[in-house]
């Protein structure tokens, strides 16, 4: 890998170009260049790589299976929405060298602590490799008043910094005066924190209240770099900084990273991470359909996926956005992908094997032959029916549905008929989603599970085939039977907890505006799905917050589109083991609740809380994507509150000129939250521009309920939602009632 290897970079069956790949001396950067021109094309960091797939495990490589053996093929998968890198090595031995080498480097990168990331930072960003566009080391202009760190580091007095000299200079620049000052407040001699001094800090500032002395001992053992200090049960300034930069020092409550909520409540009592047209990875009209859309959504914690099934060639059903120019993928590949990735554990903290029920929202428009294939494919992947007949509850819980897959769609008859045995009633074929989706179905001349006309004994053979097929497909739908929404009173009188209605974002907003409390009550006993407007052809998103405010469980978003809306989604579902289910507050699970999001006083419980945030400093902020060479960012921090209308707010700090390296703000922002249980807090760093819109630098979003008070670091994420270590903010949080 250090010597370099010539491999084929593949984008399609016809696009196969030779590129020279080389691992840099820092063992953290890989760059590649064109064989023909010798021009460097790109570079990427090992920390950007999520995994390496071996063999024909991408659509592109599968299309080349007859031309290249699987032993020579592999796929580099990046975090976030960045496209995969498909490669074909010259031999199986070369492929294995890169596959195993990359996997080892990924393991090293993922197990680094914050101090190791900081120590790696200067060499990573200043190797002989091309400097990545987000390198922030140039984002500091010390000015004429501060030449001493540079002079001190220049031991050779050559006027330049080389090797260890640069590392010394970097460490001098990264000296955290604000952290040292805090350390010295609690240290009697200014050099160390004794066990009791650390206990005082944890109790007074971090507001820890359980087993504090034991916690202090654990922190010293875990983060103190000096063996002598560990033996004496004291914490040095370096150890103190390492603790503050660790998960225990994060603004996100580490206890909430694990599965911490009750998973034995009915499905309708949870917010459920949900995607819209999951197969699309671009726009809604001409975009690419890909199984990667499902893989990325599942890895992001999504639990409700969408599959639009249509009649395909040779009796094979296909998946695509009907009556558009989007590309098509075989239904069989989608089902196979779900079987492979649906229950993979991504986060160790989520518990061994814990992934709760996956809901698949399926839009079916197929002829009989394709429908038979669909049923065979489905039953080949999951026990769709057998387990359901053993269930007595019409309101199953995530715990009961663990490792099960639910199919949402049309259904003949009622769930009770499957549980108690078939009755004599005429099969009920429900209408599908109302509004724009229903209109789209009518335009498609869609073949439903059964014809609208009553079935008679004189029907044609085709009609009987459709009837048999309809029953087979219907039997795959267990708990999530689609029903049209005809008003809250109608739903209360005739609907059942096992049914679900889908509403467009516009219809949902009207119901929120006209009948907020009724909507909350409805969602306390039945599932609601919200989907984006058909006008969002660019795959843009609506804010999910207003839908969560009335308890809508399945708020479907276009996962392929980065932005504030997906930040909120990621922020809400970052908790609870990242399982994709978040328990709603008690006042939203009560069918007789008086809560209305437009009237915060209707919430039962304590009064408003005050959230006070002191934004102290920033560390190693990345450059913006379109930043000119040599330009230095002018960062500011904006804090946004997303919640009920009365809580919606934002405030921001002043901007700091020419310093993305270690800016200091020391500003205090304050917010009053009337319904903190529904609030999300979004921290955004932007590059100030007085002549145009500010540029995005980084963000982090979390539920108010997951915030830890005290002195905390906020580890920033990119627009894609991936980490950008070691970039962070240092803040102090206080919450008062």
Relevant terms:
737 residues, 20 helices
Major sheet: order of its strands?
13-12-11-14-15-16-17-18-19-10-20
N- and C-termini, Cα separation:
58 Å
Rounded Rg:
28 Å
Proportion of strand residues:
15-25%
- Helix/strand-derived category reads alpha+beta
Instruction: Assign a percent range to the helix content.
Output: 25-40%
* Mean pLDDT level: 83
| Distinct helical segment count | 20
How many beta strands in the DSSP annotation?
28
Low-confidence stretches: 122-139, 141-148, 347-357, 382-392, 422-436, 438-459
Q: Rough shape?
A: globular
Largest sheet: 11 strands, mixed
Protein name: Phosphoinositide phospholipase C
Cofactor: Ca(2+)
Organism: Rhegmatorhina hoffmannsi
Keywords: Calcium, Cytoplasm, Endoplasmic reticulum, Hydrolase, Lipid degradation, Lipid metabolism, Membrane, Metal-binding, Nucleus, Repeat, Transducer
Notes on the structure:
Helices cover about 25% and strands about 25% of the residues. With about 725 residues, it is of the alpha+beta class. The strands form five sheets. An eleven-stranded mixed β-sheet has the order 13-12-11-14-15-16-17-18-19-10-20. It has a seven-stranded antiparallel β-sheet with strand order 4-3-2-1-7-6-5, with helices on one face. Strand 14 (about 360-365), helix 13 (about 370-380) and strand 15 (about 405-410) form a beta-alpha-beta unit. The model is unreliable at about 120-140, about 140-150, about 345-355, about 380-390, about 420-435 and about 440-460 (pLDDT under 50).
């Amino acid at each position: 890998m250090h010597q370099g290897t010539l491999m084929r970079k593949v984008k399609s069956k016809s696009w196969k170009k030779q590129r020279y790949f080389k691992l840099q001396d820092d063992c953290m950067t890989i760059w590649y260049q064109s064989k023909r021109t010798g021009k460097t094309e790109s570079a990427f960091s090992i920390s950007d790589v999520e995994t390496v797939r071996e063999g024909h495990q991408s659509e592109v490589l599968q299309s080349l299976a007859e031309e290249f053996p699987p032993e020579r093929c592999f796929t580099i998968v990046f975090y976030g929405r960045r496209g995969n890198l498909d490669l074909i090595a010259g031999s199986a031995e070369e492929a294995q060298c890169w596959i195993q080498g990359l996997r080892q480097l990924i393991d090293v990168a993922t197990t680094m602590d914050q101090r190791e990331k900081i120590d790696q930072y200067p060499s990573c960003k200043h190797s002989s490799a091309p400097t990545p566009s987000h390198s922030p080391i140039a984002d500091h202009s010390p000015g004429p008043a501060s030449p001493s760190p540079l002079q001190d580091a220049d031991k050779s007095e050559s006027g330049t910094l080389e090797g260890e000299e640069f590392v010394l200079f970097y460490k001098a620049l990264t000296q955290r005066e604000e952290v040292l000052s805090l350390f010295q407040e609690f240290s009697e001699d200014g050099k160390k924190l004794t066990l009791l001094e650390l206990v005082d800090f944890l109790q007074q500032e971090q507001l820890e209240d359980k087993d504090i002395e034991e916690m202090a001992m654990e922190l010293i053992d875990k983060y103190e770099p000096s063996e002598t200090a560990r033996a004496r049960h004291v914490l040095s300034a370096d150890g103190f900084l390492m603790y503050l930069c660790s998960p225990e020092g994060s603004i996100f409550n580490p206890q909430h990273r694990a599965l911490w909520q009750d998973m034995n409540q009915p499905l309708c009592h949870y917010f459920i991470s949900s995607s819209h047209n999951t197969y699309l990875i671009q726009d809604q009209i001409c975009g690419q359909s890909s199984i990667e859309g499902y893989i990325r959504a599942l890895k992001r914690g999504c639990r409700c996926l969408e599959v639009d099934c249509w009649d395909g060639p040779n009796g094979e059903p296909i998946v695509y956005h009907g009556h558009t120019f989007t590309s098509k993928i075989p239904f069989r590949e989608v089902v196979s992908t779900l079987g492979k990735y649906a229950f993979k554990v991504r986060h160790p903290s989520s518990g061994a094997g814990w992934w709760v029920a996956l809901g698949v929202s399926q839009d079916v428009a197929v002829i009989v032959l394709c429908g038979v294939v669909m049923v065979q494919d489905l039953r080949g992947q999951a026990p769709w029916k057998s387990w359901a007949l053993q269930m007595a509850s019409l309101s199953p819980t995530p715990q009961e549905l663990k490792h099960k897959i639910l199919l949402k769609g049309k259904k003949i008859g009622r769930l009770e008929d499957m549980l108690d045995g078939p009755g004599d009633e005429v099969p009920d074929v429900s209408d599908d989603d109302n509004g724009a989706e229903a209109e789209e179905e009518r335009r498609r001349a869609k073949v439903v599970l059964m014809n609208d006309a009553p079935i008679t004994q004189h029907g044609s053979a085709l009609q009987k085939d459709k009837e048999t097929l309809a029953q087979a497909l219907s039997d795959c739908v267990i708990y999530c039977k689609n029903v049209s929404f005809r008003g809250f009173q109608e739903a209360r009188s005739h609907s059942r907890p096992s049914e679900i209605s889908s509403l467009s974002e516009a219809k949902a907003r009207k119901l929120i505006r006209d009948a907020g409390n009724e909507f909350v009550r409805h969602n306390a006993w039945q599932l609601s799905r919200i989907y984006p407007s058909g006008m969002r052809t660019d795959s843009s998103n609506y804010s999910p917050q207003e839908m969560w405010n009335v308890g809508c469980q399945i708020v479907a978003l276009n996962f392929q589109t980065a932005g504030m809306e997906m930040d909120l989604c990621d922020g809400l579902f970052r908790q609870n083991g990242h399982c994709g289910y978040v328990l709603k507050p008690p006042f939203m699970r009560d069918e007789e609740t008086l809560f209305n999001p437009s009237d915060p006083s209707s919430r039962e419980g304590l009064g408003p809380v005050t959230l006070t945030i002191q934004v102290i400093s920033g560390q190693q902020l990345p450059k913006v994507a379109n930043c000119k060479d040599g330009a230095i960012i002018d960062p500011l921090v904006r804090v946004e509150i997303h919640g009920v209308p009365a809580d919606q707010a934002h405030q921001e700090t002043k901007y700091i000129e020419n310093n993305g390296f270690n800016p200091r703000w020391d500003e205090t922002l304050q917010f009053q939250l009337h319904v903190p249980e529904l609030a999300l807090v979004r921290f955004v760093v932007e590059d100030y521009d007085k002549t145009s819109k500010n540029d995005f630098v980084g963000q982090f979003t979390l539920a108010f309920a997951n915030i830890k008070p005290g002195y905390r670091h906020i580890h920033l994420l990119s627009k894609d939602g991936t980490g950008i270590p070691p970039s962070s903010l240092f803040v102090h949080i206080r919450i008062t009632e």
